[in-house]
Amino acid sequence: MPPPEKRLIQKNDTMLDIFEYIDYRRLLKDLYHEQKAEKPFFSYRYIAQKVGFTSPGFFTNILARKRNISAKTALKFAALFKFNRAQTQYFELLVLFDQAKNHKEKKYYFERILASKRSKLKIVDKQQYEFYSTWYYTAVRELVNVYSFTGDSDDDFRELAKMLAPPVSPAEAKKAIRFLESAGFVAKDDHGVYRQTDPLISTGYEARSVAITNFQLATADLAKEAVDRFERDKRSLSTLTLSLSSEGYSTIMERLKMFHREVLEIAKADRKPDRVYHINFHVFPMSRHQQ
Q1: Which residues touch 43 (CB under 8 Å, ≥6 apart)?
Q2: Who's near 161: CB < 8 A, 6+ residues apart?
Q3: By three-state DSSP, how is residue 194 classified?
Q4: Do residues 244 and 252 make contact, with C-beta atoms less than 8 angstroms apart?
Q5: pLDDT tens figures, 148-204
Q6: Do strands 194-196 and 186-188 pair parallel, antiparallel, or not at all (unpaired)?
């Protein structure tokens, strides 16, 4: 009878579907628990021996996001868990996505993950990615709450397109309505008029997705263009440059969160909206921390 470790290598592949994951660290954690439940000898020390870590604590640090793994180590993990070729390639994408150095790289790898034929990311994830990756989708969603839009003719979409600032093409307006309808963000009422299916969408303060960054970059560009597009009394742009302690910064961030919630409540209670606004909050350091 072969020793326990030999039997592990001969066992079938994991029962987990790695194509449902976007976080490779969570995947590794779940894989570990799955193997540990069946094979008591499958420990952090065992992983360290197989993957080539000098200490079992290295795996702990990976799961805790204190350490990253190299492409070579990713392949060793793939061999340990007996990934096939497609699974290995997908796992490598997850690692590259997690450890991308900037938004451009992160966007590139995330879109490769979405394009993966074997990827089983939830439809809602893909829809939310598209929703926040195109600035005028959010504007059109709000605009149908302002006036009665039926979309019964090409003239309707031309009018919708011109109402946006900056205007988009009629084809883009039609694309936005078709997407919003298929994703369940808007629907026709009993009178054949498009309405929002839910009054508010908020990503929350923990959202760190590529889609949200895409959206924030696009709307930051719109804010710059607004300086020339609108008269002063039609827009509000203000800036402050301050010296703060970490405690002062935390206090301001809490106040901004409270104000954010208040703005959402004001919008929710407003029964007669007649236009669409976008509000940006930008807070970022302009100096390095003094040790």
Answers
A1: 36, 56
A2: 167, 168, 169, 170, 172, 173
A3: strand
A4: yes
A5: 899 999 999 999 999 998 899 999 999 999 999 988 889 999 999 999 887 555 554
A6: antiparallel
Write out the two tokens for 27: 């995947």
Coil/strand/helix, residue 195: strand
Backbone φ, ψ for residue 186 (5° rounding): -135, 160
How many whole angstroms separate alpha carbon 218 and alpha carbon 61? 35
Tokens 């988009």 appear where? 168
Residue 219 phi/psi, 5-degree rounding, is -75, -25
pTM: 0.57
Contact (Cβ atoms closer than 8 angstroms) between residue 48 and residue 67: no
**pLDDT tens-digit profile of 213-246?**
777 777 887 887 787 788 888 888 788 887 888 8
141, HSE (Cβ side, Cα atoms, 13 Å): 22
- What span, in angstroms and rounded, lies between the C-alpha atoms of 214 and 217? 5
Burial of 173 (0-12, 13-18, 19+ CB in 10 A): buried
Helix H segments across 116-151? 123-133, 135-143
CA distances in angstroms from 261 to 2, 204, 254, 269, listed in the order given: 62, 10, 11, 12
Of 77, 121, 70, 120, give the one whose Cα is nearest residue 96.
70
Chain length of the chain: 291
Distance CA 71, CA 94 (A): 11
